[in-house]
């Protein structure tokens, strides 16, 4: 197993860092603090800007042909620009005030796939939704506990529900957006934590942030083999994304939610954001298409 090192990128503490994102048009790294109700942007000069959203914000994706993002908020998807702030609501996923959005990304056809989870009883109360242009959101996977990493590679989609401890493979049809469960591609041993955010490289290998596992792990989804690890000096690693001008850098978010005083003393950088340079290229971001 290859070991790679990370370095501190932006010191928190962010209570629940999430939504790592590279915005090519602005040459900026972005991330969210879900419990801090804020998102952050760091430009290439190293200037960090905070945008207070005022409610849970967990993910961001770019909109094709605009300078806007879509944000996942409490139970809805909303347009946002750094200059104008929050815009109109694109979709309402769940009217239950106990539900919030979690991870999400766009597929190669420009549909948004976004998961939800319950704030307290995190057992089968969320779902994975698909939002296509101005159509009503469709539930693609029901009874999800903690909806997390999702990526596409050719005719495959990989998705994880953190509570299951595994990454699942689905057959994916790009034209229709139809999916069909195929198999459990990666089963993560309990001592390595649980799968959280996820990204993918040009070789089709999965990079999975392990909550409780102190790193981002590189897995082969064809064989289920563990290939490598980016070491991060905290326990709760929450999301990861490739980016940078050559797509060979990675941004990694972490959290300090639910940690004891003793754990924070042992891992004082918990809740900070980290960065790694890698000998692999990530796939470019998919944009939401109206």
TrEMBL record:
Cofactor note text: Binds 1 divalent metal cation per subunit.
Binding site for a divalent metal cation: 18, 148, 196
Keywords, in A-Z order: Metal-binding, Zinc
A Pfam family: SGL
Annotated active site: 196
GO molecular function, one term: calcium ion binding
Keyword Metal-binding: yes
Cofactor(s) the record lists: Zn(2+)
Positions of the SMP-30/Gluconolactonase/LRE-like region domain: 16-256
GO-annotated biological processes: L-ascorbic acid biosynthetic process
Binding site for substrate: 100, 102
InterPro entries for the chain: 6-blade_b-propeller_TolB-like, SGL, SMP-30
Family stated for the protein in its record: Belongs to the SMP-30/CGR1 family.
PANTHER family assigned to the protein according to its UniProt record, in alphabetical order: REGUCALCIN
Name of this chain's protein: Regucalcin
């Amino acid at each position: 197993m290859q070991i790679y090192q990370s370095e501190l990128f932006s010191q928190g503490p962010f209570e629940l860092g999430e939504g790592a994102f590279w915005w090519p048009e602005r040459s900026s790294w972005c991330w969210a603090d879900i419990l801090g109700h804020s998102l952050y942007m760091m430009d290439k000069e190293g200037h960090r800007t905070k945008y207070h959203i005022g409610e849970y914000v967990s993910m961001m994706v770019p909109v094709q042909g605009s300078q806007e993002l879509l944000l996942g908020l409490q139970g809805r998807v909303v347009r946002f620009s750094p200059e104008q702030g929050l815009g109109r609501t694109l979709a309402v996923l769940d009217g239950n005030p106990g539900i919030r959005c979690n991870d999400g990304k766009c597929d190669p056809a420009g549909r948004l796939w976004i998961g939800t989870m319950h704030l307290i009883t995190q057992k089968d109360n969320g779902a994975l939704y698909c939002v296509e242009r101005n159509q009503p959101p469709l539930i693609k996977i029901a009874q999800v506990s903690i909806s997390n990493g999702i990526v596409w590679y050719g005719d495959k989609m990989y998705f994880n529900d953190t509570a299951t401890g595994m990454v699942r493979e689905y057959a994916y049809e790009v034209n229709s957006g139809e999916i069909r469960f195929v198999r459990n591609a990666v089963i993560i041993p309990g001592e390595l934590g649980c799968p959280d955010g996820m990204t993918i490289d040009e070789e089709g290998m999965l990079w999975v942030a392990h909550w409780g596992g102190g790193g981002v792990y590189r897995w082969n989804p064809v064989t289920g083999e563990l290939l490598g690890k980016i070491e991060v000096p905290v326990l709760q690693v929450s999301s990861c994304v490739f980016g940078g001008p050559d797509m060979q850098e990675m941004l990694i978010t972490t959290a300090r939610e639910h940690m004891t005083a003793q754990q924070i003393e042992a891992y004082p950088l918990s809740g900070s954001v980290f960065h790694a340079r890698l000998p692999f290229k990530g796939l470019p971001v998919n944009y939401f298409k109206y």
